[in-house]
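wait is this the right file?? whatever heres the structure
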């Protein structure tokens, strides 16, 4: 599993939005977003470009940290 830190999530709506964004990226599966930890964990069915993840998360109004 892969874990990334995401800044800017503050409620269940944010969790749903981030989950949806990640779910729309080909190769990402089994997404779990932890609001309290500010983290998203998922399985990569194939290598996924980190820059793409960063870009899509930013488009939704959040920031991948690190
Ligand atoms: Cu929110």
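ok assuming it is, sequence goes like this
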């Amino acid at each position: 599993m892969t874990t990334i830190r995401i800044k800017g999530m503050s409620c269940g709506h944010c969790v749903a939005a981030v989950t949806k964004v990640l779910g729309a990226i080909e190769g990402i599966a089994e997404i779990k977003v932890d609001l309290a930890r500010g983290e998203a964990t998922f399985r990569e069915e194939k290598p996924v470009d980190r820059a793409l993840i960063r870009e899509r998360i930013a488009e939704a109004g959040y920031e991948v940290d690190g």
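Residues 12-23 form the longest helix (12 residues). so i think its the right one actually
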